[in-house]
Specification:
Helices cover 24% and strands 32% of the residues. It is of the alpha/beta class. The protein has a domain of 126 residues: Cytidine Deaminase, domain 2 (3-Layer(aba) Sandwich).
């Protein structure tokens, strides 16, 4: 987050002021000494980003992780093909109808939430400090079935926010599959693929779901709730998770 001079156009006319803008930086990831990925992200929580990105993309196991400046250094049993193109939110499988399945196994069936899906979004919004200051970040949170926020991460990119909160859990010895994943934006295929790889049973999104995300959620036994705020939520996948466990 940086304070930037700019002009503001409002009913009062054109004024000059300073405003807080969300950080967007080039982050380089090195695996076993080789640079493999450069991506656009907010330059904080970088050990969470590195570990989470590797786990959510199924790249292998991290043994050690550190960062210097905007560079993340990973060591371990990793299988990542180096990319020359900058990885942005527009990269990946967006819009691709011929998408391979992300994992071989479906997720389990142990989660039963005890509050409405909208409450997860409300609880998440209360802790979105970067968004409150800038209006320019996405958020992902891991919550227990009662809606309590266990971990929350924000980033300029919605994919990065998911990677960061998953990485934060793994760095703390927590298993992401034991929690509900809440998203501040829309649920696209990539985010549900990350959830499937981590065996997360339930994803609650403030925004819309794509058709590819809906199909993937059904295929992997994930309960996906879109447009969760308000009284018109859209749900695909098992609906029994929307009630208290017997």
């Amino acid at each position: 987050m940086s304070e930037t001079p700019l002009h503001r156009l409002s009913e009062k006319g054109l004024t000059f002021e300073h405003d807080n803008l969300a950080d967007e930086s080039i982050i380089a990831i090195y695996c076993n000494g080789e640079k493999v990925i450069s991506l656009l992200a907010s330059a904080h929580d970088l050990t969470d980003l590195g570990r989470g990105h590797v786990a959510c993309e199924g790249y292998g196991e991290v043994e050690t992780i550190r960062y210097e400046g905007n560079n993340i250094y990973l060591e371990g049993d990793l299988n990542i093909e180096p990319r020359t193109q900058l990885l942005t939110a527009a990269c990946g499988a967006c819009g691709d109808k011929d998408i391979d399945d992300p994992v071989e196994n479906t997720v389990g069936d142990s989660i039963r939430i005890s509050i409405t899906p909208s409450a997860f979004c409300d609880n998440m919004q209360l802790q979105q400090k970067m968004f409150a200051a800038t209006g320019g970040t996405h958020c992902a949170a891991l919550c227990d079935p009662s809606g309590e926020i266990i971990l929350l991460r924000e980033d300029i990119g919605r994919h990065n926010a998911v990677d960061k909160v998953i990485g934060a859990a793994l760095n703390r010895g927590l298993n992401p599959k034991e929690y509900v994943l809440a998203l501040s934006g829309r649920a696209g295929w990539e985010l549900i693929a990350k959830s499937a790889r981590m065996a997360i049973e339930m994803v609650i999104s403030v925004g819309a779901m794509s058709d590819a995300a809906a199909e993937l959620a059904r295929n992997y036994n994930i309960t996906l709730v879109a447009f969760a705020r308000g009284g018109n939520a859209a749900i695909v996948g098992p609906i029994q998770r929307l009630g208290a466990k017997d």
